[in-house]
Design goal:
This protein has seven helices and eleven strands. It has helices at about 10-15, 20-30, 90-100, 125-140, 155-165, 200-210, 225-240, and strands at about 5, 15-20, 40-45, 50-60, 60-70, 75-85, 105-110, 150, 165-170, 190-195, 215. A hairpin with a 4-residue loop joins β3 and β4.
């Protein structure tokens, strides 16, 4: 059986004995019903993984003995997806898919044509939902490095990120160049911009182009905004050698 993945802070991972408590301990002992002798992996979500064996289980807590540690270095090329905010739970779906694929950074974008918006009094709650989706998807897909979901960005913030990237692409079904044939850098951020269902406005498109973003298409079909980022990231990750 593939060992389940749980999360704790880096300080705990440095010890030879780890006790999972709180939400992770409850999930391990009560939901997963882990028992002594079973294998689990514990990560800090920043590349460090401890391979462990369960030594004791109590309601809400799990004691672990560390057998081995390993560390996954940061990738030379980070894949950053700027994801327009979507209505309903489609935003969380997009985050889940992108995390499973291997996106490094997810940037919620308040684009002009977004149907949904994060009101100031609800923004923290909405961001917490995206981050929770990323965390759970990373655990499920056994990622030692979790996707970082940053604070919601305005167009000016996205333009600045594009200007600093090694490569920036705007997904556009009508573009002449295919993402699969775009020249990729050896290092730095590769930024992929995914607009809302209504598309990126002409003003936004002009600002992104002026900052160096290149329009690219994915293929013959038009994808939903909730799945386009994951598909685009998979194409890039496979060409970077991170997907064999």
């Amino acid at each position: 059986m593939i060992p389940p993945v749980f999360v704790c802070d880096r300080a705990q991972l440095g010890s030879d004995q780890i006790t999972l408590t709180g939400a992770e301990g409850k999930h391990a002992s009560t939901v997963r019903r882990m028992s002594p002798g079973e294998r689990v992996d514990v990560t800090d979500g920043a590349g460090l993984v401890a391979e462990c064996v369960v030594t004791a289980a109590r309601p809400g807590e799990l004691d672990l003995a560390v057998v081995e540690r390993r560390h996954e270095p940061e990738p030379a090329c980070r894949v950053v997806v700027v994801q327009a905010i979507l209505k309903g739970d489609r935003g969380e779906l997009a985050v889940e898919l992108m995390t499973e694929v291997g996106v490094d950074v997810i940037v919620p974008w308040a684009a002009q044509r977004c149907v949904a918006s994060w009101r100031p009094d609800r923004q923290d709650r909405a961001l917490a939902r995206w981050r929770a989706s990323a965390r759970e998807a990373a655990k499920q897909s056994r990622r030692p490095r979790f996707s970082e979901v940053v604070a919601a960005a305005k167009t000016a913030d996205v333009v600045d990120r594009v200007a600093r990237a090694s490569l920036a692409c705007v997904l556009d079904h009508g573009a002449q160049e295919a993402l699969g044939s775009a020249a990729l850098p050896d290092a730095g951020d590769i930024v992929l911009v995914v607009g809302p269902e209504g598309g990126i406005s002409p003003a936004e498109r002009a600002e992104l182009a002026a900052a160096g973003a290149v329009p690219v298409r994915l293929g013959p079909s038009v994808l939903r905004a909730s799945s386009a980022g994951a598909i685009a990231a998979a194409l890039v990750l496979s060409r970077c050698g991170r997907w064999a």
